[in-house]
Amino acid sequence: MVIYGWDKNLETGIELLDAHHMQFLIAVNKRIISQKCKNDRGELERLIQFLQYYIQYHFQVEEAYQVECNYSGFREHQAQHDTLSTQLRFFQVRLASCEDDSDLMEEFDAFLYDWVHEHILQEDVTFAQAYRHFRRTEAKRKVGS
Fold first, then answer.
1. C-beta of residue 44 within 8 angstroms of C-beta of residue 108
2. 77: Cα within 13 Å, side-chain hemisphere
């Protein structure tokens, strides 16, 4: 994996969600650095714990924005959030029960990669475009009233 920098491709244009995604990438980058330096199990445990708290709040906020704009992909997006949450819990259980965690760490790194590239860069950005369109339409409607 490579270190993630913030760029325009990651921006949703929704300030709070962008701040959340930046926090997520900082945590992922710490994992990447830890893995490259020493493959620290404790760092992985801290990242999983952080992500457990992160997703509880972030997913609720993101879904609230989707409900606000009556996002057509809401149910599918919500199902993806549920899947990510379940996968994260699965990694947490597996990490607690294994002695040799090298394979698990590789799987977890692939999970993080997919989260960034398939969920944030594709699904979240698609939703954000719909949300921004909704906000522009609402603003025009209010001006025209």
1. yes
2. 23
pTM assigned to the model? 0.83
Q: What tokens appear for 51 in the block?
A: 């992500």
- Indicate whether 131 pLDDT > 90: yes
What domain count does the chain have?
1
Residue range(s) defining the domain that contains residue 106: 14-131
Q: Which residues of 34-44 are buried (b: 16+ CB within 10 A; e: fewer)?
A: bbeeeebeebb
**Tens digit of pLDDT for each residue in 35-68?**
666 666 788 888 899 999 999 999 999 999 999 9
Tell me the CATH number at 96.
1.20.120.50
The gap between the terminal CA atoms of the chain, to the nearest Å, is 51
Calpha distance 45→140 (Å, rounded): 48
